[in-house]
Write a structure and sequence with these properties.
Elements: H1 3-25, E1 31-35, H2 42-58, E2 62-66, H3 73-80, E3 88-93, H4 94-97, H5 99-103, E4 115-125, E5 127-131, H6 139-147, E6 153-158, H7 163-175, E7 179-183, H8 188-197, E8 202-205, H9 207-214, E9 219-224, E10 250-258, H10 263-277, H11 280-288, E11 292-293, H12 301-321
Parallel strand pairs: 1-2, 1-3, 6-7, 6-8
Antiparallel strand pairs: 3-10, 4-10, 4-11, 5-8, 5-9
């Protein structure tokens, strides 16, 4: 072997060795899961649950760090610029990677280039609820009611460009009706409170929250936005089966690492998470929260990237229909 070749091999090993060694010893100190929202919501609660199990499997503490702000942008940007070593991960609701792309003229991160997707593990449908004072007991009746009052019926849309707002826009488009969105700076809970009190006639809500309020008999659930029934609300039909065939609008949660994270570390995390989400206890917890577990939680990274790209295109069209493209 000549001297030049020895030098080349030495250079290659010098470049490759650090990441290979880091992957082999991973993890050797605490891992941080960054939740770009405040504590207490479904994204946060679920992250704390599987984070505790991940710590057991990896032998290192897993710390939840809430970084709310900017409609999840603060936390996402923080992880996008973190060291790609597997110790800082992003727990992302779908809007962080999809809706925000269309809403903002310029994002401080690129969902496809700045992250490595690790696991897509749960879907979050919405539930369409009406105040019980309305003489409406089905999606078909609601559509007829709104058609008879074009532009005069309002719905609780939570935040501008949020999932509940855009779900309402899709519902309007597919049903061929005209409803007026009402927005809330406080988010989904305040919006649902106004439907509960009768200030607004209807809205879309988190099934986990709405379920506990149905017992008051002040609101009525007409349908869920997913293509299958929600385990936490088994008696509530799908909107698709109640007047709008093919209707399927859900958000989802995904775990990601900064771009450049060694594949061996990504694969280790994927194996651990696949085992965790297959556990009956985790499955039951997700269903109890009004979520729908995703069976195939760890497809290959290219497949996950393709999924994100398709969701960016899908929600981008909805944002455009709502006249919100580049509004932020």
């Amino acid at each position: 072997m000549n001297f030049a070749r020895l030098m080349l091999l030495g250079l290659i090993s010098f470049v490759v060795a650090p990441s290979a060694i880091a992957a082999e010893s991973y993890p050797n100190h605490p891992i941080k899961l960054v939740v770009p929202l405040g504590a207490g919501g479904s994204v946060d609660i679920l992250a704390r649950s599987y984070g505790a199990e991940l710590a057991k499997r990896l032998g290192q503490p897993v710390v939840i760090e809430n970084k709310p702000g900017g409609g999840t942008l603060v936390g996402a940007e923080y992880v996008a610029h973190a060291a790609p070593d597997g110790y800082t991960l992003l727990v992302a609701p779908s809007g962080t990677l999809t809706i925000e792309v269309a809403l903002h003229k310029k994002l401080p991160y690129d969902p496809l280039k700045d992250f490595v997707p690790i696991a897509l593990y749960v879907k979050l449908p919405s539930v369409l609820v009406v105040n019980s004072s309305l003489p409406i007991n089905s999606v078909a009746q609601l559509i007829a009611y709104v058609k008879a009052r074009p532009g005069k019926v309002s719905y609780a849309a939570s935040t501008v460009g949020g999932v509940y707002h855009l779900t309402g826009e899709i519902f309007k488009h597919e049903a061929g009706i005209n409803m007026v969105p009402v927005f809330y700076r406080e988010g989904g809970t305040a919006a649902l409170d106004d439907v509960l009190s009768g200030i607004l006639p209807l809205g879309f809500a988190d099934p986990g929250i709405a379920r506990s309020l149905l017992a008051t008999q002040k609101i009525r659930a007409l349908g869920v936005t997913s293509s299958v029934r929600v385990p936490a609300m088994p008696n509530v039909p799908t909107i698709a089966a109640s007047g709008l065939p093919g209707f399927d609008v859900v958000s989802w949660h995904m775990l990601l690492a900064p771009a450049g994270t060694p594949p061996a570390i990504v694969e280790r995390l994927q194996r651990a998470l696949k085992a965790i989400f297959a556990e009956p206890e985790q499955q039951q917890r997700m269903r109890g929260m009004g979520l729908i577990p995703i069976d195939k939680t760890t497809p290959a990274v290219p497949e996950l990237r393709s999924f994100i790209a398709s969701e960016i295109a899908r929600w981008g069209k909805v944002v455009q229909q709502a006249g919100l493209t580049g509004s932020l």
